[in-house]
Specification:
There is one protein chain. The chain is α/β, with parallel strands linked by helices and 380 residues long. The chain is built from 14 helices and 14 strands. The strands form 3 sheets. It has a 7-stranded mixed sheet, with helices on both faces. Strands 10-11-14-13-12 form a 5-stranded mixed sheet, with helices on one face. A two-stranded antiparallel sheet has the order 1-2. The longest helix is centred in the C-terminal third of the chain and has 20 residues, at 246-265. The chain is globular. Bound molecules: pyridoxal-5'-phosphate. Pyridoxal-5'-phosphate (PLP) is lined by residues 74-76, 99, 101-102, 142, 146, 171, 173-174, 193, 195, 205, 207. Pyridoxal-5'-phosphate is lined by residues 74-76, 99, 101-102, 142, 146, 171, 173-174, 193, 195, 205, 207.
Length: 380
Amino acid sequence: MKFNTKTIHGGQHNDPSTGAVMPPVFQTSTFAQTSPGKPVGDYGYSRSANPTRSALEEALASIENGAKGLAFSSGLAATDCLMRSFKAGDEIITMDDLYGGTYRMFTQIYKDSGIKFHYVDMNNLDNVTAVINENTKMIWVETPTNPLMKLADIAAIAKITTANNIMLAVDNTFGTPYLQNPIDLGADVVMHSATKYLAGHSDVVAGALIAKTAELGKQLHFQQFATGATLGPMDSFLVLRGIKTLHLRMQRHCENGEKVASFLNNHPKVKTVYYPGLVTHPFHEIAKKQMSGFGGMVSFDFVSGIKQDSITFLEKLKLFTLAESLGGVESLANHPALMTHASIPEEKRLEVGITNHLVRLSVGIEDIEDLLEDLKQALA
Ligand SMILES: Cc1ncc(COP(=O)(O)O)c(C=O)c1O
């Protein structure tokens, strides 16, 4: 199947008992057994597996070209599950620009774990090879990053991980499998905040891991089952429904994203526009190589450099909603320093370029004329 067909049919089958085209919401915690240890069907207890979640997990594996998909109660729960694969003494290499919650988990939750993290600028892969040693167990990349749209060259990093027998994990939340397939480029595991583009309607918090091999999938399923941050049946249904229109939504997100980036790029009050589709973007060539489009996330800051200007702009928006999160059908605007990335210390934020006047837009799928009009009036 090609991608658009997979979003609808990948791993799916009609319900065998009723013919229902969409899997029913199996809102049950447990399943009857005929004799101890002999369930009626394939299911025993919903923390281990639930048929609605299974349908979603099959869809996830299909669209990301992996062997096994797993659905979690949030994106961070998915990341945390993967992190449980490592032990004291292990080392992980990651990027110097990460979603704030991922950074908070690595620096605070895993602070006393004995796992050592290296935060490097992956623009220059010598920075990666310089810190690899026999304890290095994983490279974790987010590409494009939240909020500066930095990219990591997945295929080039995969060469390094393969040569050194290291796991490569890719947070594909911003890219989505519509735009890039990390497993095809050499990743071992893909992570998603399914809250965002996969679900796509700002009505659910969910996460996903997709493993390249059945063996890794089995290991991660054991960790998920044994720690318990699984996605409920109703939320699984919502994410699955969202995936069925992922290709259509992403097409419009990309079209609108490009137009918003170009409008901002030509506006006298705007300093830098961070969008992988702009030829001036430092990672444009990598984006062209590994992505089939540039997505709907656009960040920018102000010529004035004044924090209050970004706050006033956000207060004046009418159609863009000032809110955390991204990837839904509606356009959202966010102030990373004060909202999503507030957990990163100011000096670290400024070091990587998350200024106090940076604004991040999640460009939705509304009519572009209305979106541009809103930006124009708020900038004025
Ligand atoms: C790139 C990225 N990764 C991970 C997460 C965490 O996902 P969740 O909020 O579903 O836990 C987010 C949330 O904004 C994100 O943007």
